[in-house]
Amino acid sequence: MENPQSKYRSPLTDRYASDEMSFVFSDQNKFQTWRKLWTILAEAEQELGLQITDEQILEMRNNLTNIDFKRAAEEEKARRHDVMAHVHTFGAAAPKAAPIIHLGATSCFVGDNTDLLVMREGLKILSRKLAQCCDSLAQFAHQYKSTPQLGYTHFQPAQLTTVGKRACLWLQDMLIDLKQLQLTEQGMRFRGVKGTTGTQASFLELFSGDHDKVEELDRLVTEKSGFTSKFTITGQTYTRKIDSIIINAVAGIGSTVNKFCTDLRLLASLKELEEPFGAKQIGSSAMPYKRNPMRSERCCSLARHLVSLVASPLHTHANQWFERTLDDSANRRIVLAEAFLTADILLNTAQNIMEGIVVYPKVIEKHILEELPFMATENLLMGMVKAGADRQECHEKLRILSIEAGKQVKELGNNNDMLDRIRDDVYFAPIHELLLDIVKPSNFIGRAPQQVEKFIKEEVLPEIESYRLSFNKEAPKLNV
Asked: What pLDDT, in 10s, does the model give residues 147-174?
């Protein structure tokens, strides 16, 4: 028996992806969907008067999932044609139906329509998982809506924000992605029955020139397949521009999760926030104390792969000649599945992280106190002016004290002693008793708590409510 470890296996399915998404893009699902489409086509053709018996259709229905993959592989090796290999394999399982399987159709009838069905199911899964990520992050943001935290621009300390407000930056991106997935799914159309070059000539021949029956066949097959709309115009394939639209929407998850996980990695380095860390987890084989953010790092790594896939469908579309060339096929087998599998992994891992983010308020407070005395100088200045001081004189004194305190921090590695210097300076006696109130961190977070509440109530919750009943009860379990 061949050792499965002796061949390359994709880490996307072997190591990371959920069983749910792995099945959607599996051979079993692909080829049983082909059989469902062939059966739907036969049913519709029978309804419109072609000589197809109930017995033939029943035989097809009874053999949708029992696929002889070994036989199919042997057929494809001999015929060099995957669709015809499965036509003959299906025919062997349903011999009475064999003469009418694939009647009037071209390979893209099963190939393209299955891809559309599979990608639509993939979008539904991603939307549900993204909505649950939004829900988890919204709960986190609400919990910490009023917890002050240093803001950063250029990764330099800036005005204060809150832990919850920063989480809403990540949440907003996820909400945008969710809406994009929804719009993309809603805009999807079925290829339907179009024939070899999209003219429906073969079906017109089958129905003896009856255009109405050909149109009705297209409508019936589309409806039976679960779509409400179909393309009027195709070549042999539906336009490959559709693939680029879908993959672009999916890849948006990549940039969003990358930004979230990058921020979390930086915050972990600052020891303010960190991803969950298992009781037996090892951060480094050499350094026992390490708590590396490996889940976030994995997300950033896989997100780069997902984002890089955006260009491929564009190239494929651009290089389709006339009604169709087959140089799309091998590329699409890889790119479409990998995009959805990678996005699935990112959302599973992000959800796992979000369910267990650890916050260290004391470290956050320490960092605020290191910077706040400098940020508070304008408030101190206003307090002194209200007490009757000369604005320009006070500004100069604060400037000098700031420089001296800055030297303590940068040159000597000491704590920021700006407030102590103000307390020791009799010039600032009018505000000594007010000093702690003036530099209270909550006075520097603006409307952050109110913004968090408004955003969650008015934008997030209405968008994710329809998904709530389908949420998983527990955070996704990661294999590694």
From this structure: 999 999 999 998 999 999 999 999 999 9
CB-based burial label for 233 (10 Å; 0-12, 13-18, 19+): exposed
154 tagged catalytic: yes
Taking the complete model, does pTM exceed 0.70, yes or no? yes
CA 196 to chain centre: 35
CB within 8 A of 249, min separation 6: which ones?
123, 177, 180, 181, 183, 184
Q: Left (φ > 0), alpha (ψ -120 to 50) or beta: where does 446 sit? A: left
What confidence tens digit (pLDDT) does each residue in 336-374 have?
Answer: 999 999 999 999 999 999 999 999 999 999 999 999 998
Tell how far CA 33 is from the center of its chain. 25
| Spatial separation of the C-alpha atoms in residues 278 and 112, rounded to whole Å | 44
Say what the alpha-carbon torsion angle 454, 459, 461, 467 is, to the nearest 10 degrees: -170
First to last CA, the chain: 28
The question of whether 395 is a catalytic residue gets the answer no
Q: What stretch of H or E contains 358?
A: strand 358-359
The residue from 229, 269, 284, 470 that is catalytic is 284
Question: What value does the mean pLDDT of the chain take?
Answer: 95
The beta strand positions in 57-193, using DSSP E, are 148-153, 156-162
> Which of the residues 6, 154, 208, 285 is marked catalytic?
154
Distance CA 88, CA 95 (A): 9
